[in-house]
Design a protein that fits this description.
With 199 residues, this protein is an alpha+beta fold. It has one domain. The protein is 17% helix and 35% strand. The protein contains four helices and ten strands, in the order ααββββββαβββαβ. The chain has a seven-stranded mixed sheet with strand order 1-2-3-10-6-4-5. Strands 7-8-9 form a three-stranded antiparallel sheet. The longest helix has 14 residues. The termini are far apart.
């Protein structure tokens, strides 16, 4: 087993037993008592309350949108998970204000295309990945990163930019991964989320 494989296996095992910051809050944590304020930001939801949906901002093709997550995100798929899960990428903040707001660690999110009149390849079923700088991306200086801790005892170099380019589109993330400059770490989290394209 190579060092990279061992590292990825260790990270996957750790991540499968911890909360997937912000996103997992949709399914594991719950909303505070109803106060008439409407849907809450996922990072504002505390433990010990009734389950509820929530929202967080996401990047798609270089623009920010609001994504609303269904209740029970991580237990939404019973039995075998669908084969058509799209990527939900989590990386370092892409500008001065992180999308994670009050989360345990600073991060942003990237999803594929947003729905346009029900056309395109948009999917509400998403699979979470951490986007971290690879060893070669770090040593070459091609991947700029921010060290962050998504769980106690786990600190990772979350990618900020690759070759000076932001990672605000799936194309940028997947091109960097294909070039070996970032590593996509499977978090094991499956979420259901939809975007309001007018925001």
């Amino acid at each position: 087993m190579t060092t990279t494989t061992r590292f990825q296996t260790t990270v996957r095992l750790l991540l499968s037993t911890i909360a997937f910051a912000g996103v997992v809050l949709v399914g594991l944590a719950a909303a505070r008592a109803v106060d008439g304020a409407g849907l809450r930001n996922c990072t504002e939801i505390g433990e010990g309350f009734a389950r509820a949906g929530c929202w967080e901002d996401v990047w798609s093709n270089g623009d920010e949108y609001r994504m609303t997550f269904a209740t029970g995100c991580c237990s939404a798929f019973t039995g075998k998970a669908p084969d058509d899960l799209d990527g939900f990428y989590v990386m370092a903040p892409q500008d001065a204000t992180p999308q994670s707001l009050n989360a345990a660690f600073r991060h942003d999110h990237v999803v594929r295309d947003i729905p346009v009149q029900n056309q395109g390849s948009y999917s509400v079923r998403l699979h979470g990945y951490f986007v971290i700088c690879s060893p070669s991306g770090i040593t070459s200086g091609d991947c700029d990163f921010e060290m962050n801790s998504p769980a106690p005892g786990l600190t990772l170099p979350f990618a900020k930019t690759v070759n000076g380019q932001s990672l605000t589109s799936v194309g940028a993330v997947e091109t960097a991964a294909d070039a070996g400059l970032v590593t996509l770490i499977d978090t094991g989290a499956a979420v259901v989320g939809t975007i309001n394209p007018t925001r």
